[in-house]
Write a structure and sequence with these properties.
- The chain is mostly helical.
- The chain is built from 12 helices and 2 strands.
- It has one domain.
- The longest helix is centred in the last third of the chain and has 27 residues, at 190-216.
């Protein structure tokens, strides 16, 4: 009888058969996950790190706006969606729990509102309104409906549980208008690219937090989150956020390695 292949050998064989882009994405997602599992003992710190990186990305936008006095290439709709899910998440934090996440979200919301103010009023002439043509009701309405149908089963009031689910779902797709702007322009200037890349890193850290928590608790975390479809939807939302930005992060890293300051995206990337 033929001996069974070892799992490591099977995975290695699968990776070797993938195209170059597939290998790069695997190295960018799975290998860091394994590395993080070995070096980060308290995986809750990954979630804090994700929020901190998001705040850092917003800081890059503020620097761009203050230095260049332009908001070209930025999506106002993405910023508004970000402010919306952060506001809802802050409400949930105040009524359900108050911790370091509340403070980080508060700082990120304030800076996001400042960016929205600058785009709407101070830098309106440089805003690419014709490129920022993603209809946000395509994501807000489905997220609202989904949150009513699938939400946590905790002891909190039903309104709070629906709000919690809504901010989780909306966060997963809030970057789509920004990706549409980049798809329409095809050329992404450095500060905008750095901001979106920071979002990609934040999403990866957040996704890694949930995945590693599930692995460490041998699936018991899913039970702790409640019953029904909600625990699975939390994981799916995190994975969706990560893979929405995977293509962009791949081309951003490739551009950096090639020494290019301005990122040019191939057709159909985002």
């Amino acid at each position: 009888m033929k001996a069974a292949k070892r799992p490591i050998h099977t995975v290695a064989t699968w990776v070797r058969r993938q195209p170059p882009k597939g290998k790069t994405l695997w190295m960018a997602i799975d290998c860091p996950n394994i590395f993080l599992r070995m070096i980060v003992h308290d995986h809750d710190n990954l979630f804090v790190a994700a929020e901190a990186v998001h705040a850092l990305g917003i800081s890059v936008l503020i620097y761009k706006i203050m230095k260049e006095k332009t908001c070209a290439g930025l999506s106002l709709k993405s910023q508004e969606l970000t402010a919306l899910f952060l506001a809802v998440r802050l409400y949930c934090s105040f009524v359900m729990e108050f911790d370091i996440h509340t403070l980080l979200d508060s700082a990120t919301l304030v800076t996001t509102l400042w960016v929205i103010y600058m785009i709407r009023f101070k830098l309106r002439p440089s805003y690419m309104e014709d490129k920022d043509n993603f209809a946000i009701y395509y994501v807000v309405i489905p997220c609202a409906i989904l949150s009513v149908l699938i939400h946590p089963t905790t002891h909190h009031h039903i309104i709070n549980r629906i709000a919690w689910a809504f901010c989780v779902y909306l966060e997963a797709v809030s970057v789509l208008p920004q990706l549409r702007v980049m798809q329409n322009t095809k050329i992404v200037e450095p500060f905008t690219a750095q901001y979106v890349f920071a979002l990609g890193i934040a999403r990866f850290l957040s996704c890694a937090h949930w995945v590693l928590q599930v692995l460490d608790t041998r699936g018991q975390l899913l039970t702790a989150l409640g019953y029904g479809l909600w625990p699975i939807m939390v994981l799916i939302s995190e994975i969706v956020q990560t893979f929405i930005l995977a293509d962009f992060c791949y081309y951003y890293v490739k551009s950096l390695m090639g020494g290019q300051l301005v990122l040019r995206l191939p057709s159909g990337v985002v």
